[in-house]
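Why do we care about 3D structure at all? Because function follows from shape, and shape follows, mostly, from sequence. That is the central idea of this module. The next example makes it concrete: a single protein chain, its amino acid sequence, and then its structure expressed as tokens.
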Amino acid sequence: MCVCMYITQCENQYCCSFSLKPDRNMMFELKLIVLTMMLWSSGVRGDPQTLLINTGCSTYNASNVRSFYDNINGTFAELRGDISNDSKHFGTAQQAIGEVLIYAMFQCRNYLSKNDCLSCFNTASTQIRNCSAANGARVIYDGCFLRYIASIVSRNINTQRYHKNLHVIYTHV
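And the structure:
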């Protein structure tokens, strides 16, 4: 079999001026190209794994609500930045503007992409706000978890020792 690009007349016969004989390698490559194009056209969709497994809110509320919300927004913004800029799957953040100290921790599964991890964090940070001004809260999804704890900062305590104690609490829970 001959595939002709140009047909010319040579000595009372039609001849191929360029012929291409298909072989097994060429057919394999053609099938591979078609398969690749089909996969690209279908698009790749992520799965942030946001099936809610557990949620919990403290029964006690923050005494200084304005300071609480300023600090919770700051810690969540820091965690979001760590995920989106540094591609981290685990992070902690703390902020103490005013008299309320917020310590937050987030982790997503290591196999999640950066976008899926960020999407899971956004879902968790929205859900955890349903706890309003609770002193502590947690949200657990199948792909990630987020928790925070708030306390009143006294000028007389050693905040470095306090942060170490919080780290111990979080690692043993």
